Each structure stands twice: as C-alpha cells, then as structure tokens.
Amino acid sequence: MRIATWNVNSVNARLETVRRWFEQEQPDVACLQELKCVDEKFPAEPFERLGYNIAVHGQKTYNGVAILSKTPLEDVRRGLPGDDGDDHARYLEAVVSGPTPVRVASIYLPNGNPIGTEKFAYKLNWLKRLNAHARQLLALEEPLAMVGDYNVIPEPRDAEYPAHWTRDALFQTESREAFRALKWLGLTDAFMQADGSPGAYTFWDYQAGSWQRNDGIRIDHALLSPQAADRLRGVAIHRDVRSWEKPSDHVPLVVELEL
DNA sequence: ATGACAGAGATACTCTGA
To answer: Which stretches make up the Endonuclease/exonuclease/phosphatase domain (predicted)?
Structure first.
C-alpha cells in the first residue's frame, strides 16, 4: 500500500497538476494539505472518477486538509483535540479500510512565523496537542501513519543552507525539540528509516530562485507507529514534480507499506 | 535591512505562507 502526502497550495489552483500526478501514480491513499477551500469547493469529481473515496476538512482561503483513499474511509475525525476554540482546519484522521486497516492522519502544522509572536506560540501549542493525541493513538497499538506538512526542519542536514533558517520558526530549537518529542513517543520517521540520504527535500520557496539554487528543506514527514513501521518497505520523494508547470512549492512524499 | 513568489479574495496602503 502506498500512502502519499502533499501540500498542494490550493487544490483548485493546482487541480490540473494534482490530477495529473494522481493519474500517473494512483496512490492507494493520499493526504493533502493547504486546500484553501471549504468542503463544498473541493473538486471531488475528478478524484472520484479515479476511484477515490474522499474526506475533507476545509476552510475558506487558508489551511484545509483531505484524505483520499481507494477503499472506504471509516472513523473520520475532524480537528485536533485539545482546543475547542481552534478554528484552523489543520487535522483530519480516518481509518483506511482493508484486510489490515490503517489509521491515517493528514496534518498541516502551523508555520509559526514570525518567532516571538502569537503565531509561534500557537505552533508550539499545536505540537503539544499533537503529541498528546499521538500518545492516545499509539496506545491503540495499530498501524498508524501521521503524515503531512509538519513545518519543521528536524536537523541541519534537512536544509541545503541551514544558515538561511536560523531565525525561522521552522528551525527553532523549540520546534525541533517538539518534533523529536513526537518521535520519542515511538513514532518512526519513514524517510530516515527507509532512505535517509542527504539532500532530500520536500519544499523549495517560490521566491529568490530557491528551486534553481536547490535551496530546499525537508519539512513534509511521515511518522509511523511501530505496527506500521514493521511493514515499511520504502519511501520516495517526487522531486521532479517541483519542475512541472504551475507547481506547488511542496512535492509529494510517498511511503510504501507491505499490507 | 529589504524584497523577491504565489494564492485567495479583496478591490488593499492586505493577509498568509515558509
């Protein structure tokens, strides 16, 4: 089973690019982030035509996450527990049905810039809530894939130019510590486990020729429970998609589980 | 030190992203 995660930066502005990738790759499951539309505006039809069941947690203009699956989705949860006042659509969870069901979460973690503001505090609080929820899910002892745009550069090796990010929320000590804390719960970073080669990035800014200079960072991650990590067979970052016409600034990350 | 891109939705002297 192949599970993909991709921050598409507006699913409607990106529709042709995303549809083309789905047609080529036909992932069993795909988690999308930054839909930038409400549920009713999600372009379901082209994906249903490719055989997908769809769960959407959308929002006007900002955020928005989805899970698409070739098999039916069950036990859908919208929003991260722990703050009823949080109205950002950044978390969606569902169980992908099949002989071995897999719980999948589509995550769009707050950016948190600029540091020292409310936004950075929101990011750290969100990470704390994600940690608490991950702890609950791990207690279920089932195959679990928490995938998405974590907006965290875990280590200097995950940036071509680490010095560019020293004052950025994505690379702050607190952000990196919180990401490590998730892993210490018992989650495996699928890319590091199955590949780990340096220079593997998932994001290049639109600005300042970042793509041309390969000024990339690895901020999209797939964290697996032990029961999913046992079945990890491989991982791929679809780097070439960044050179397509009208690209997202993120590229797809695909995890293969033997199920 | 600043801007550079891109998208949404506004019609802005904006907000957000990373």
So the answer is: 4-250
Catalytic residue ranges of A: 108, 149
Going along chain A from its start, the domains and CATH numbers come out as 2-257 (3.60.10.10)
pLDDT in the model for residue A84: 83
Residues A108 and A149 sit within 8 Å (Cβ to Cβ): yes
Q: What is the pTM of this model?
A: 0.96
Which tens digits make up the pLDDT trace of A84-135?
889 999 999 999 999 999 999 999 999 999 999 999 999 999 999 999 999 9
Strand B contacting residues by CB (7 Å): A 7, 9-10, 12-14, 34, 36-37, 60-62, 110-111, 113, 119, 149, 151, 168, 170, 203, 205-208, 217, 219, 246, 249
Assign residue A256 a region (left: φ > 0; alpha: ψ between -120 and 50; beta: otherwise). beta
pLDDT at A33 over 90: yes
Strand B bases near protein CB (under 7 Å) are: 3-9, 16-18
